[in-house]
Amino acid sequence: MPVKYLCACALIGLLALAPASAVPVEPQAATATQSGDDAAPSQESVDHELDLFRRAGVSLHQAMRIAEKIHPGSVTADISFDGALGAPLYKVRTIKSGQVFECDVDGITAEVKNSALFSSLQELNELDRHNLAALRAAHLKMSDAVLIAEKSAAGKAIAGGLANNDGRLSFIIIVVSNGGLKQVQLEPAPGRH
């Protein structure tokens, strides 16, 4: 999930949760933050993005399933809504057999606009490789985390990604609920080999 998007939305602090449960935390008022040379987008641009998201007929969960079908056996590692070009689009990264694929799914038609190899696991940094290995071993998948977060926060997920908290994998899901954004963090139970 793009750090710029997280900063732009001025999302809430992380929430430590038990493995198959989630509790949303109310979002704080949006503030402009700056990270390096990237200034956060204005509240107007965030509102425009959320308006496009609300008009999309394809859900984040559906976009994830579409992307995973392109590479059977793949799992989603990162997904986010992108309305920067004025049209609703989901950017999905899936992993399979040591490769990371990126796919763009149209938020209106569900058509795949682009699908390409993004990277091999060897090209990623050590933390990303560790997170992806933990994702493959976890019982909870991104699609499960999205459904849990949507139910918990009573809304629709707009983005989902992986985070590493003290060496432990977490799913970070952003949900649009009651006109605002809520962040839900889930820590999956480790998989059994």
What does this structure look like?
This protein is α+β, with helices and mostly antiparallel strands. It has a single domain, classed as Nuclear Transport Factor 2, Chain: A (Roll), CATH 3.10.450.40. Helices cover 28% and strands 33% of the residues. It has helices at 3-8, 43-55, 60-70, 126-137, 142-153, and strands at residues 34-35, 38-39, 75-82, 89-96, 99-106, 112-120, 156-165, 168-177, 180-186.
Please render the helix and strand layout as text.
Blueprint: H1 3-8, E1 34-35, E2 38-39, H2 43-55, H3 60-70, E3 75-82, E4 89-96, E5 99-106, E6 112-120, H4 126-137, H5 142-153, E7 156-165, E8 168-177, E9 180-186
Antiparallel strand pairs: 1-2, 3-4, 3-7, 4-5, 5-6, 7-8, 8-9
